[in-house]
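Hi C.,

You asked whether I'd gotten around to modeling the 298-residue construct. I have! Everything is below, sequence then structure, no commentary in between.
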Amino acid sequence: MTDIKQFSSLKDALRSLFGAKTKVKTSDRIAGGDINEAFELTLTTGERVFMKSNDSPDASFFAAEAAGLTAISQTGTIGTPHILAYGTDGGKAFLLLEHISEKSKISGYWETFGEQLARMHTVDAKEYVTDGTYGFNGNNYIGHTEQINTPHNDWRSFFRECRLDVQFRMAERYFDTQEYWQINKLLERLDDLLIEPERPSLLHGDLWSGNFMTGNDGKAWLIDPAVYVGHAEADIAMTELFGGFPPAFYAAYREIAPIQAGYGDRRDLYNLYQLLNHLNMFGESYLSSVKRIIKKYV
């Protein structure tokens, strides 16, 4: 990954980063998030850091998040919080990130966001996948679900095998025999329904309004990634799933990275993956949306 260090205790991490006498002065819980707890730590040095924590006995979840943030940062196109350290402490895992201050949005915030995402999508993504074109160098997580990133040379086969098929298998209990016939038919038709991208793109992977924030420079910064190399349409589709971003975002994006013809016909297929994952994580409230999309394409 990078030289980001893993620690066996929060105390050791803070001492390594900020000095041997550093301790946590105050710890304030921050609201938000379904998977992890979040805290603002004020240190005895006067500095503040952001900490995410969960009840995992190992740090693999946060190691994957750090790898994703690092990949995005390495493109040099869009902001992400600086990663300080990750590790475990007393049966819990933690991730330390730079503290994000309350900042006003810059003028042209949404246009800048669209431009920066488009530039990220046009960066050469070869270094992020070994022995293939699509996927990522290691599995990661979409929410708390493991996201399979086995390298493939064909986008449609990758999306079938590592995205939809995995989620359908997890959701098997929700479908009857007739519905499984429809699902298999849909998976068989993906070669006709999807198209290969003009270029493979590094994707955020879970890009909705809860997974970006205004950074210390007043611009949009990406957080909580589920990165992989795929078709840029999958990221754009996700931005539209829960209400969409302002039109200025999409107009600015298209100026740099035009969207391939027929995208509107493919959008729901990309979001089927996201809705299946929500079904598997949160339950039946997402089932009707999933079934609607299956029927649309069969």
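If it helps when you're writing up: The first helix runs from residue 10 to 18.

Thanks,
B.
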